[in-house]
Amino acid sequence: MTMKKWCISFVCLIAASLLAIMGINYFVDPLGYFRSQGGDCYELDEDDYLREQKAQHIKHFSEKYDAYLIGGSKAGALRTEKLKELDGYNYYNCWVMSGNFQDYEAYTKYIVEHAAPKKILLQISTSEIKQFDRESRGAIYETPAMLAGTSKAAEYVSFLFKNLKLSYEELTDDSVRYPCLETGERNLTKYYDYFEKNKGTDEYYNFLMKKKVDQFYEYLESETPDKSAVTSECIASLKRMKTLCDTHGVEFQVFFGSLFAGQMIGYEGDSLYDFMRQVVQVAGDTWCFNTFNDVAMNVYNYYDISHYYYEIGDMMIDTMAGKPSKYYNFGILLNKDNVEQEITKRRTYLGEWKQYYKEHGELPFQGMEDGSLVPKVYGT
Hints:
Helix content: 40-55%
Number of helices: 14
Radius of gyration: 23 Å
Strand content: 5-15%
Oligomer: single chain
């Protein structure tokens, strides 16, 4: 074979290989990127590139919605049917895995400038103060090009050339899928099933929560890390979101979501308290369900250390809508006049937790027989 023929053959082989990689990734579509382009792919679950699917859904179907819920994965348990009781608006639930302010701002900007909303409702989950963005975690955590203002063509090519291992795993994966709902809510079926099988047993807490709670216990012996650099970025982003909404005549409401006590101890400290002060300064009256309350102490109100069930979401919505709660200290409306008083109370409660931990080596989490259990409705 002459050198010329060898070079031509080599180039053809490379071209064929590249075409094969692109074809496999396009048709298998392991992360759901290509299926998402029309905005009407509702078979994707939390392991897929939901950030793109949600962005495309907003692009193509914004006429269906008056308002948008933005937040991290905790917010996935807020039902749009229930959210309508707040103000009569039709909501789209735009939660994202590993929520962060980079994504929150990107979605807010796109929605305000392209979807003509009446309201943006932002849930803060507290974990945002760990890191301003989450893109380093992998492809499904990257902010979509259409929101970030980067090259859509480059993004498209990057998904065509993903590692073929992803396509192989997709083809060989026979696990049950739990696709998100059309209006964006997270599908919690598998978590309710696990609750039914393991409620009242040590397995529920030990498997879902114990390992991470044990790691957070160290903060009851010392202090939580200084996250002031991150909170400064988050507050700057929050200010831009508020300005965007004000400029376009869009209502902007912020609230802190419910947090399991076992996760609260990983954040409770000066950085969080300063963050709360600044959120209230920017957003005004802010509902806070991340409080020292009975609900937070019951392991069965949460499907893992980080996330609450639909019923807790419903209770938050009811409280924000003005309905009384039978659960002690569940939710407080923070404002510029009372935020310092509430922070002082939190320090007192935290001191009591630290003392209890010092004496018992754990916190007094509650279970099935305690009145702090919020009865399950949607998992039955």
